[in-house]
Amino acid sequence: MSGFRFAIISALSAAASATNLFVSSYSGDVTTLALSDSNGTYSLNATSSDPNCGPSPAWLTLDASRGTLYCLNEGLTSPNGSMSTFTINRNGSLKHVQNSTTISGPVSGVIYGDPAGDRSIALAHYSGSSLSTYSLTSGGRFEEDESFTFELSQPGPVADRQDAPHPHEAILDPTGQYILVPDLGADLIRVYAIDQKTNAISEKTPLEAPAGSGPRHAKFHNPYKTADEGSTTYLYLATELASTIISYSVSYLPNAGGLEFTQVQEVNALGQLSHARINAPAGIALSPDNRFLLLSNRNSSIFTLPNPDSSNNTAVPSDSITTFSLSESGELGFVQAWPTHGLFPRHFSLNTAGNLVAAANQNSGNVVVLRRDVATGLIGDVVAEAEIEGQVTSVIFGEIGAVNGA
Ligand SMILES: *[C@@H]1O[C@H](CO)[C@@H](O)[C@H](O)[C@H]1NC(C)=O
Ligand SMILES: *[C@@H]1O[C@H](CO)[C@@H](O)[C@H](O)[C@H]1NC(C)=O
Ligand SMILES: *[C@@H]1O[C@H](CO)[C@@H](O)[C@H](O)[C@H]1NC(C)=O
Ligand SMILES: *[C@@H]1O[C@H](CO)[C@@H](O)[C@H](O)[C@H]1NC(C)=O
Ligand SMILES: *[C@@H]1O[C@H](CO)[C@@H](O)[C@H](O)[C@H]1NC(C)=O
Ligand SMILES: *[C@@H]1O[C@H](CO)[C@@H](O)[C@H](O)[C@H]1NC(C)=O
Ligand SMILES: *[C@@H]1O[C@H](CO)[C@@H](O)[C@H](O)[C@H]1NC(C)=O
């Protein structure tokens, strides 16, 4: 009798543990994948796809608590890009709300403003050398607000792809007072103060990154999880062209006057300073427990794996995610490099529990979900995998509290 009851309870809990992942791809679609866990055995299946962010979906920002998804179309084949919004149906499919033309090449977006009041989204435009903002109205609708277009100051480009400013990401500081924009073309992290009443933004003194380093993505870290002006705050910058992570301590100037940065450390993205090699870091994320930093690495294929087709002896190359421990002093400790079972992991995300990592391998067209040991931070086996049409540009977990948008 009790055994029978146990079997029913575990069947129910297995049925309940399905999570949606949202995937953008240059095929033009945003695909919903259902990740189901049946007693530790996972499956990953496409349940719907939506073409309304097409033709070049590059980035997804999830507002999980309001069930709204923002998708950026980079517009690789047109002079402009666009932003599309969706609400999320109970079965994980998307309901399209709005598609509006933007400045060329939006590749990252961050929501800011009063969580209970007026909110906005800031977009970084890679090919359009711009930052733009939109006010969010209700139900996923939005209206154009401000835009800022940048030019290179002399003496001009240092490295390839530094012909013009190329803002690659927009992030919010932990206090919600500033937007930071790593600019790959200009070797700057641009800093904007947010007017707390209107959400208008104004430029402050930027952080200068090393010449030719190519800032791409960055993350803030408060070691004590406090987020006020007086608390210890670090910024970790992933440089795409130099393949490093640079940590800075951050201090807040009075009266929302800007931020000051002091470099703490610079480490090789692959964790092997002595072995310089071609590598292009992409996504950066903190684990949900605030103890580890993860970075995805492209174009270096530091792993060679057995062919998944056991009848084929040809080994296959794989790119990687590196994990570093975080410390109270802002220094990183190398923990692990681990294969993503694919090429060019442009983006990855962690689930709310931190025990799964999903990697979007752009050039091999697959999404791979890997087990992660929360205690040690070590990534492990593949638990599920899905082939995606076209080049995959991002993957996010549809859960409140997940670490999305690396
Ligand atoms: C669940 O998995 C465990 C460990 O693999 C196994 O011992 C158990 O029999 C499985 N239970 C069911 C209902 O499949
Ligand atoms: C889901 O995908 C797995 C492979 O990952 C496959 O074995 C299974 O049949 C699929 N389930 C459905 C409902 O399509
Ligand atoms: C959304 O708008 C952009 C820019 O105007 C356009 O290129 C794109 O085709 C639109 N997407 C769809 C699916 O209509
Ligand atoms: C999911 O829900 C939407 C809205 O209720 C519905 O239109 C759609 O057919 C459903 N899809 C599936 C696969 O059940
Ligand atoms: C389309 O792109 C052009 C050139 O970058 C820009 O001037 C214009 O403002 C863009 N349109 C919109 C609606 O953002
Ligand atoms: C990848 O490496 C090759 C050299 O092997 C280089 O030409 C190319 O620009 C690199 N791509 C990226 C995205 O870093
Ligand atoms: C064996 O695997 C390699 C690498 O994935 C692939 O290029 C090749 O086509 C495969 N050969 C066969 C016969 O499937």
Describe the structure.
The chain is mainly β and 406 residues long. The protein has a domain at 285-406: Methylamine Dehydrogenase, Chain H. Helices cover 4% and strands 51% of the residues. It is built from one helix and 30 strands. It has one helix at residues 2-16; strands spanning 18-25, 30-38, 41-50, 57-63, 68-73, 81-88, 94-102, 106-113, 119-125, 130-136, 142-149, 171-172, 178-183, 188-194, 201-208, 215-221, 234-239, 244-252, 259-268, 280-286, 292-298, 303-305, 316-318, 320-325, 333-339, 345-350, 356-361, 366-372, 379-387, 392-397. The strands form eight sheets. The chain has a four-stranded antiparallel sheet with strand order 3-2-1-30, covered by helices on one side. Bound molecules: 2-acetamido-2-deoxy-beta-D-glucopyranose (NAG) (7 copies). One 2-acetamido-2-deoxy-beta-D-glucopyranose is lined by residues 10, 39-40. InterPro entries: Cycloisomerase_2, Lactonase_7-beta_prop, N2O_reductase_N, WD40/YVTN_repeat-like_dom_sf. Residues 1-18 form the signal peptide. GO terms for molecular function: 6-phosphogluconolactonase activity. Residues 205-224 are annotated as: Disordered. It comes from Cladosporium halotolerans.
Strand content: over 45%
The number of helices is: 1
In CATH, what is the class of the domain at 285-406? Mainly Beta
Kindly name the structural category: mainly beta
- CATH topology name of the domain at 285-406: Methylamine Dehydrogenase, Chain H
Count of distinct strands: 30
Distinct ligands, ions and cofactors found in the model: 2-acetamido-2-deoxy-beta-D-glucopyranose
Most strands sheet: 4 strands, antiparallel
Give Rg in angstroms: 21 Å
Which percent bin holds the helix content?
under 10%
CATH architecture of the domain at 285-406: 7 Propeller
Strand order in the sheet with the most strands: 3-2-1-30
Low-confidence stretches: 1-16
How far the N terminus sits from the C terminus, by CA atoms, comes to 48 Å
The overall pLDDT average reads 93
Cα shape: globular
The CATH homologous superfamily of the domain at 285-406 is called YVTN repeat-like/Quinoprotein amine dehydrogenase
